[in-house]
Write a structure and sequence with these properties.
185 residues; Glutaredoxin; single chain; globular; alpha/beta; 17% strand
Length: 185
Amino acid sequence: MNMKKEILLFIVFSLWFNVVNAQSDDHFARNYNVKIGQPCPEVAFGLTDGRTIKISDYTKNTVLIYFWSDAKDTSVKILPELMRLQKKYGRFEVIAVNDGKMNVDSLEKFAFEKKLKFPMALDNNQFLYKTLAGGNKYGYPFGVLIDKEGNVEKINTNYKEVEKILEGNNVLLKLKNKIDKRHKK
């Protein structure tokens, strides 16, 4: 395939990928404080290990802020899938935010038993959830996917949607790297 065709393919795939993602989010996006394509508000997460992290700490990676409740089976079942995605795609981070119904000790024990390696936060007063989810009537689990530039890429997402996005980003990155290599020759 010649260089012009590769560049054209890259552009067409990028446009298609962005249009499909934007269309699927439109009916969800109306009720949230965050908006697709807009910067994610800079919020701080108090982690169970005592550290505090911010969204801006993850500027080189795609980040999923995953709000979950131990009272919801679906919330708990997704956590190992997120670990799998993190291992598969590398530059993908998860911040798991519990609804605050657990205490620090029980959450740390839970994470240890499930072999969860990502940061865990408690949202005792629902501040983080309200800041990002706003009038969300869908409950838990709830995810906000943030791109490397700090912009909201997807709202109320599940791990299967996240995997599609990561796979698409991976394909785009490989194609871009291939084009860059040929361009340097």
